[in-house]
Design a protein that fits this description.
Layout (H helix, E strand, L loop, with lengths): L5 E3 L1 H4 L8 E4 L3 H6 L6 E2 L5 H4 L9 E4 L4 H12 L4 E4 L2 H11 L2 E5 L6 H11 L6 E6 L4 H12 L2 E8 L2 E7 L6 H8 L3 E6 L4 H16 L4 E5 L19 H9 L17 H12 L5 H10 L3 E5 H7 L11 E3 L1 H9 L1 E6 L1
Parallel strand pairs: 1-5, 2-3, 2-4, 4-5, 6-7, 10-11, 10-14, 11-12, 12-13
Antiparallel strand pairs: 7-9, 8-9
């Protein structure tokens, strides 16, 4: 071994910020099928000499093989070629042992649906394959939700128990592409929403379901038409040219989520305020937060162009990031989905 070869222990390796480094996995592809490491670039040792110049130089490079022997040789060669290269001692074998020994604890007590399952999904996304996540929650529906979430996402529910009104679930992240899992995700399982109403209660329900679907890794399209377009309008005044009818529509329709009314018991706006106050007191995310979560988790918001033209709503008046589309956009999303909901 070259005395100048840099080394790092597996214990210290898993603590690194993987956004600041490049990781090279020298194991063969059949090994990755059984024991994946999604944070790494795969350069199989059997073909490394053909592709070694493709290893990026923009960040420090951490290299491992199965046991640490082959990676030592490659790190020495990379160092001679000007790379800032580091060998991971013990290879993947040692890394996987450290991963199993270091579960991630997630305190989700008093977090409500759908934020709870979103928080679990975000945590699982950012841990290592085979790493365990121990979740503590107080939401009574969590026991059912986490079992279904694990079943449908391919992750493994190790255990679940309730003690002193606290539900504790242990999950193992599973990225192994088994035949059954491939079959599960080859199905049409996107979700498609046609949002026709701008009632506050219906809009809250739509975004709760959209966020839940996104947390399960599904592609979600929300297509807003007619009164549903008002949900996407910016609250502030936007100077755009309109004719008399368009100005009347704009004046009479609610502008943005904070102006929405309840479909029942609105009581001149008091009902909507009461619902919002109850949600706040019970630490349930507001509609505005639900919209933000949906967008940040990749939910696609589409405004119906035809309805925009009819009602005189301009693209500049809609929230940033909203796309425009027509009937083919909606139907195309529906054909990729196993569920299309009309709200």
């Amino acid at each position: 071994m070259n005395n100048n070869t840099k080394q790092i222990s597996a214990k210290d390796f898993i603590k690194l910020n993987f956004k600041e480094i490049n990781v090279v996995d020298l194991r063969e592809k059949d090994e990755l099928l059984v024991r994946p490491f999604s944070q790494a670039l795969n350069f199989p040792f059997s073909s490394i000499w053909e592709n070694i110049d493709d290893i990026p130089k923009d960040k420090p490079v951490y290299v491992f093989c199965h046991s640490g022997e082959l990676s030592t040789e490659i790190v020495s060669i990379l160092t001679e070629r000007g790379y800032d290269a580091v060998n991971v001692e013990g290879g993947y074998s040692a890394v996987s042992q450290e991963i199993v020994k270091n579960p991630v604890e997630l305190d989700a007590k008093n977090v409500r649906c759908p934020s709870l399952i979103i928080k679990v999904a975000d945590t699982v996304k950012n841990v290592f394959d085979r790493q365990h996540i121990i979740v503590e929650a107080t939401e009574s529906s969590f026991a059912s939700d986490i079992a279904v979430w694990c079943e449908r996402t391919g992750n493994k529910l190790i255990s679940i128990e309730t003690k002193n009104d606290i539900i504790c679930a242990e999950i193992e992240k599973n990225s192994v592409k088994t035949e059954n899992k491939n079959k599960m995700f080859s199905e049409r399982n996107d979700k498609n929403f046609l949002v026709f109403s701008c009632d506050l209660d219906k809009t809250i329900a739509a975004f709760i379901m959209a966020n839940g679907a996104a947390a399960m890794g599904r592609k979600v399209t929300m297509f807003f038409t007619f009164w549903g377009l008002n949900i996407l309008r910016k609250e502030e005044y936007v100077p755009v040219e309109k004719n008399f009818i368009e100005k009347m529509f704009s004046f009479l329709m609610p502008k943005g989520t904070k102006k929405l009314k309840l479909s029942r018991l609105n009581m001149c706006g008091m009902g909507a305020k009461i619902i919002r106050k109850i949600m706040q007191d019970k630490e349930i995310k507001s509609l505005e937060d639900l919209v933000h979560d949906a967008v940040s988790h990749g939910v696609k918001l589409v405004a119906c162009q035809m309805t925009m033209d009819v009602m005189g709503i301009k693209k500049e008046e809609l929230l940033d990031g909203v796309e425009t589309g027509g009937v083919a956009t909606f139907l195309g999303a529906g054909e990729k989905s196993d569920m299309s909901l009309f709200i």
